[in-house]
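Methods — Computational structure assignment.
A single polypeptide chain was analysed. Its primary sequence is given first, followed by the predicted tertiary structure written as structure tokens.
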Amino acid sequence: MPYRAPLADFHLLLQLTGFAEVAETERFSGASPDMVEAILSEAAKLCENTLAPLNRVGDKTPARLENGVVRTPPGFVEGYREIASGGWVGISADPAFGGMGLPIALGSCVNDMMGSACLALQLNPLLTQGQIEALEHHASDDLKALYLPKLIAGEWNGTMNLTEPQAGSDVGALRTKAEPNGDGSYAITGQKIYITWGDNDTNSNVSHLVLARLVGAAAGTRGISLFLVPKIIPDADGNLGAPNSLKVVSLEHKLGLHGSPTAVMQFDGATGWLVGEENKGMAAMFTMMNNARLAVGMQGVAIAEAATQAAVSYAMDRKQGKTPLGEGAIIDHADVRRMLGQMRAETFAARAIGLACAVAIDMGRATGTPEWQSRAALLTPIAKAYGTDVGNEVAYIGVQVHGGMGFIEETGVAQFSRDVRVTSIYEGTNGIQAMDLVARKMMDGGEAAGLLIDEIEAAAEAAREAQPVLATAVWNASEALREATEALIGQDLNDRFAGSVPYLRAFSRVLGAHYHLQAGLAEPARLPLATFYIKRLLPEYGPQLAQLREGAASLYELTPEALLV
């Protein structure tokens, strides 16, 4: 089945998550209903007609390294050029440098569509968008003037260079060093791994953001600085000059995302320029990483959407014996209907949470209001972890719906499982997201979480007359979440960490139920899906919150010896 952009979902969820309030701000006043319609419809055409046909091509013909040159799959160069020429790379970038200046929420819808169509190719503009934001916030005026127009136009692409062979999630253990050249530039030496789109034949230059330690700087993350290191050094007018002292050592052989080149990068005294202040590199890089965390959550949603569409289409066509409804297709079997219901309901809930996070980011930027900024911070780890968990789970179910044919590569559904698997790992593993939620995001004593729960309960109260059973279930779940959050605040840190993943999942369940209920009230045709989610999936919050209260002690009773029995 060809991919079809879920435009109805986008329009409804933008309404339910408060996008109208974003469009009323001075900063985003250009995001009129007509503009939103035009953006979504044009992006849908690009994704359905140009990008989706490249998905299987990229899987079957991976990116490769030939004589030091990275070659992308057939059609990727042309597909990327359509992305760039349409202005999609700079959809949310500063208009002063050529961007559209549109809200992150609208950009998230576009990235959702691109990820469903061809996730491997979508990673190129996604990483560039993150770099654009980091440079907008932290780079010098000269660097902005030189690099931003090229990145926004899609002529150059951006990367993020954090990880090293000996330093995974422990970024502070990096060894890459930076030494002043005496002319305002620095010599960067070291090796980085897992560099997405670290080199390619789609862009004329690659702009690497590299974390490195100045000689004599403090150990750990406090001594890390951020540098912009181009593949080819441009002159003051942006004309490309001499190649820099860096190279692609190899491309990783991966479980999925074969079309996306993931490079091992070697920097041998490469020329770079400081971004932000010395020893403040992590703060600057986190600007890019926070953007990427929401975007990766939407990647999970994107694959869930593609997997769901494929599974529903297959189940409507495939006949296998009699069903309770007669001689119909397998969609008429109760368990198949259950699986498809879960796929669609989870996808909708995860998309709603991601767009709610995006709206909070937009409102925080447009108004500077601490409450909106706190909400964006709270929702970011939830959107990333739940979105990518859903992507993995829905893709898994999609294979199951296809039965034996799901295990056969020619159907294409196994690719969804392979491609989405990394999303729960990169940009901070989902375990780290959960730890962030219960630690940093609760430093306010749970205030931001409490305000969000207040809104969920108020909406459930307002829905009691129209949908008493569903509204009561959502209210009860939200109140249980409130009580668990209060209990969490009283725990020591390791006890919080022990229950952090189930707590994040319970929070996601409640948020998902809230948006499903509101969708069912807004459009009665969506009520059966809301009923499915609230009655069948929401109840999982109970055992999830019970795990939170259990603490860490019983986990450490699982000694290595006990695990080896």
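Note: The first strand starts at residue 64 and ends at 66.
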